[in-house]
Amino acid sequence: MRIYIVLLGPPGAGKGTQAQIIAEKLKLVHVSSGDLFRENLKNKTELGQKAQSYVDRGELVPDDITIGMVRDRLMRADCEIGAILDGFPRTPAQAEALTKLLADLGGKVVSVPFIYVPDEVLIDRLAGRWTCQAQGHIYHEKNNPPKVTGICDQDGSALYQREDDKRDTVMRRIQVYQEQTAPLIEYYRRQGLLVQIDGTIGIENVTDHLLKAVQEAH
Ligand code: AP5
Ligand code: MG
Questions:
Q1: What residues contact 217, with CB distance under 8 A and at least 6 apart?
Q2: pTM score over 0.90
Q3: Exposed, middle or buried, 168 (CB in 10 Å: 0-12/13-18/19+)?
Q4: Minimum-distance ligand to the CA of 18?
Q5: What confidence tens digit (pLDDT) does each residue in 111-148 have?
Q6: What confidence tens digit (pLDDT) does each residue in 66-107 have?
Q7: In what side-by-side order are the strands of the sheet with 29-32?
Q8: Of 1, 6, 9, which Cα lies nearest the Cα of 178?
Q9: Which member of 38, 73, 90, 125 is catalytic?
Q10: Alpha carbon distances (Å) from 115 to 104, 154, 186, 203
Q11: Separation of 75 CA from ligand 1 center, angstroms?
């Protein structure tokens, strides 16, 4: 049985940070829809061109494009025992599509940790975030700085600040999250899958709580 974990939470909650850590510990693949879009933007693919204006404005990319992209990723061989999903699903239609796809693949969502963090903390986190060019490793200039400024500890590549982390775009992303993604909290709570995790307690503590939640689930 394939095991899928869905990380829910607003922009800057720490989904990517935690997904990178727990994917390694649980030997599952980290699938981030945001990273997939950024890869397509960088490589100027047709999909990247379709997604560009939405990502730049902090809007959600239309469901059909997003679902197709994630489906292709989850059907690759490295996902055969399951995956940690970060940033997907983000709408009720995406959640329904995921349930169907996983049933076809012979798996299901076993746990949905919801990482909650107040808005003012989110804004500070995104303003100070630095991301690695090569593989998307995540840092924060105060909370989790790299050993050498501007260089990724793990692969030595240059760090950059995301275009969509400008203050106005961040405000829009938080609003879009509230309007379109927050309803999934209730959706997964009704299914008995939701686990609330305080995302303000430091990266290692959040990881401990997440691992405990996931291990209790299966
Ligand atoms: P995406 O890349 O998914 O962005 P997001 O959801 O806005 O989330 P972020 O990546 O900004 O935050 P995060 O929770 O991963 O936090 P992180 O770990 O980096 O999506 C980007 C865009 O792509 C969307 O706007 C949309 O256009 C499109 N898109 C993506 N998926 C889509 C979908 N399903 N449907 C439609 N469109 C989609 O941490 C943030 C910072 O905080 C870092 O600096 C980190 O070091 C720091 N930090 C983390 N944890 C802690 C902690 N515990 N204590 C202190 N600091 C911490
Ligand atoms: Mg992320």
A1: 110, 111, 193, 195
A2: yes
A3: exposed
A4: 1
A5: 999 999 999 999 999 999 999 999 999 999 999 999 99
A6: 999 999 999 999 999 999 999 999 999 999 999 999 999 999
A7: 29-32, 82-86, 2-7, 107-116, 194-198
A8: 9
A9: 90
A10: 28, 25, 14, 12
A11: 23
